[in-house]
Amino acid sequence: MDEVGRGCLAGPVVAGAVVLDPDRYVSGVADSKVLSAAERERLFDHIVSAAVSWAIAIIEPAEIDRINIHQASLLAMRQAVTSLQPLPGMVLVDGFLVPHLAMAQRAIIGGDRKCTAIAAASILAKVTRDRLMLALHAQDSRYGFDKHKGYATREHLAAVASFGYSAVHRRTFRPPSLFDALDHMDRLDEHEADAIEAGH
């Protein structure tokens, strides 16, 4: 299993879990980050068709804010893997162990580059999340979710500075590059107000 969207300013965190069939090899599976969007879309269909079982879990921004992004990522992964039917006897996880799983697990650093099953899970999660972000862009195009998918790019930060948060932004995720600047401007405003009050 694997998750995507952990470092985003907006949108959900999404986890994918998959049990691959060793007799139904899917050619081209790799870390979702090195594949094009078109390649991921093509592989998504092949993976879900060939898999013994697969599942997706989505944790929305409000829940991320309530429990924090780390706990939300763990929750998404637990929900994804426990939705598999049948349940696997062993789980391979990208990066770190997931607490409170009922089955054995192994964390693999850089697992999405080393393990086909983790790479396949990363593709399922990434494609699902990208589709969700495109749908959010269709509802509100001001932030450019179709381009950056909620990550804190310069364009996205500029949109937040102009329009403020939308309903799908995470209130507890405050990128320093934007908010340090805003805090600095707030301090300048305060100093200006103090100067005016003092007659300067």
Written overview of the protein:
The chain has 8 helices and 5 strands. It has a 3-stranded antiparallel beta sheet. The model is unreliable at 181-200 (pLDDT under 50). The protein has helices spanning 37-50, 61-67, 69-82, 111-114, 116-139, 145-148, 154-163, 176-197; strands spanning 2-4, 13-19, 53-59, 90-94, 104-108. It has 200 residues and is of the alpha+beta class. The chain is 50% helix and 14% strand. The chain has a single domain (2-184), classed as Ribonuclease H-like superfamily/Ribonuclease H (Nucleotidyltransferase, domain 5, 2-Layer Sandwich), CATH 3.30.420. Strand 1 and strand 2 form a beta hairpin.
Task: Note the main attributes of this structure.
8 helices; 50% helix; three-stranded antiparallel β-sheet; globular; single chain; Nucleotidyltransferase, domain 5; 200 residues; disordered C terminus; two-stranded parallel sheet; 5 strands; alpha+beta
Taken from the alpha-carbon principal axes, the silhouette is globular
- Can you say what the CATH homologous superfamily is? Ribonuclease H-like superfamily/Ribonuclease H
CATH architecture: 2-Layer Sandwich
| Total count of helical runs of at least 4 residues | 8
User: Distance N terminus to C terminus?
Assistant: 62 Å
Q: What is the class in the CATH system?
A: Alpha Beta
Main sheet: strands, sense, barrel: 3 strands, antiparallel
What is the helix/strand order?
EEHEHHEEHHHHH
